Amino acid sequence: MLIDLPVKENIDLGNLPSHIAVIMDGNGRWAKQQGAMRIFGHHHGVKSVRDTVEGCVELGVKYLTLYTFSTENWNRPKLEVDGIMQLLVKTIAEEVPELHKNNVRVKTIGNLESLPASARKKMVDAIELTQNNTGLTLILALSYSGKWEIVQATKQIAEKVKKGELAVEQITEDTFSQFLATEDAPDVDLMIRTGGDHRISNYLLWQLAYAELYFMDDLFWPEFRKKDLFEAISAYQHRERRFGKTSEQLK
Ligand code: FPP
User: Which residues in the chain belong to E strands, given as ranges?
Assistant: First the structure.
């Protein structure tokens, strides 16, 4: 029976989500449950990141975007912000050789200028090293918010129109997308959020337009493992994506 097979075997490789986006929520609450400081949760979240990336590479998913640090996260206590930035530098340094070996292309979206110089440098080096890789594209959303991204795109388009390089009639959904930070990445097919909240928190507002949303109510991010990713993909494959059409039209 299908149910007895490992979840990975239930996945139809011909119908994978091209782009998976994740909101890695619940690190702080998980740490609190352990009687530890919030940063302990973020440290444990790295293992979940590794598992998720591995799962995507194994299956052949093309794009994975992780909400690593939002624009609003700068408002957290300084101790926690500094801790996350240090963790970022350490994790990138430790993980990039393995990512590169696995043909993963690393990218970022967000306001890199606002990161501490050490974190920015590590990210720029990782992007440069892996730029010609052709496997999974791993996009880290860093100092990112969806509204920020849409405003940035609009400003760039306005500049082009002002200089006469773009006509107003040429502004279409496709041209607008090209000015977004995600550039060549397709829209998100599947968005996974751990931690029990059912919201999108200023994440990829444009790219999530027709994404299937998968909320995990009973799982904090440090507990997320490859099998949870496979379960989410399997659930996605059982959804009917109508894109505004009727069921009958799809048949
Ligand atoms: C949200 O949980 C998590 C974050 C703001 C940070 C996530 C960062 C990591 C897991 C480090 C990953 C590193 C790389 C390189 C990708 P929360 O703190 O909001 O948890 P809470 O809702 O329980 O307070």
Answer: 19-23, 63-70, 105-109, 137-144, 190-193, 212-215
Residue with CA at minimum distance from ligand 1 atom 16: 68
Q: Which atom of ligand 1 is nearest to the CA of 45?
A: 10
pLDDT tens digits, residue range 28-58?
Answer: 999 999 999 999 999 999 999 999 999 999 9
Structure tokens at 145: 């918010």
Q: Catalytic annotation on 25? A: yes
All domains in the chain, ordered by first residue: 16-145+187-238 (3.40.1180.10)
Q: What is the mean pLDDT of the chain?
A: 94
Question: Cβ atoms within 10 A of the Cβ of 163, count?
Answer: 8
Active site residue 73: yes
Ligand 1 neighbours (beta carbon < 6 A): 24-29, 42, 45-46, 49, 66, 68-69, 73, 84, 87-88, 91-92, 140, 195
Give me the pLDDT at residue 3, please.
47
Q: Which of 27, 76, 127 to mutate to test the pocket of ligand 1 (most atoms within 8 A of CB)?
A: 27
